[in-house]
Amino acid sequence: MVAEIQLYDVVVFIHVTAVVVAFGATFAYPFFQAVVERSSPRSVPAMFRAMHTTSRYLVVPGALVVLTAGVYLTIDRWDFRQLFVLVGLFVVVVLIILGATFFDRHEDRAIELSQRDVAAAGAGEVVLSDEYWEVSKRIMRVGMLASLLTLVAVFFMVVKP
After folding, report:
1. Which of 3, 41, 65, 110 could pair covalently with 18 via S-S, beta carbons 3.0-4.6 A apart?
2. In 3D, which of 24, 25, 44, 26 has the Cα closest to residue 35?
């Protein structure tokens, strides 16, 4: 017996794959940030450039695919009044807005400040400024909130309460 694959099934695959691609790496960001800031502060600008590039070319486009596929799946088989649909829609929209407003701006600022601190150190030991640490902590806190929101959405998508 050959399994019949329907368009809906392909879109579910695209939806889940987009979640993994878009948000999977972001769960590691706080760990990268904590380790690099403390063990190799000279590498902080490169770390933030990598995170920033990942956000622009994987997270944001992936989130848009998650949203588009989710809307298709809802129209095809579900209902926009169902709680799991509302939670998923809310979370992905909040994450897209956070990416475009908060993370984009704060990552740019973290790159700028860390480059300044590295340049000021010359060949000596890099000491990241209080101004840098303020931005870094803000990114870490909001990043952890974004990860929590992602997990809440995944829970609601899987359990469908």
Report:
1. 65
2. 44
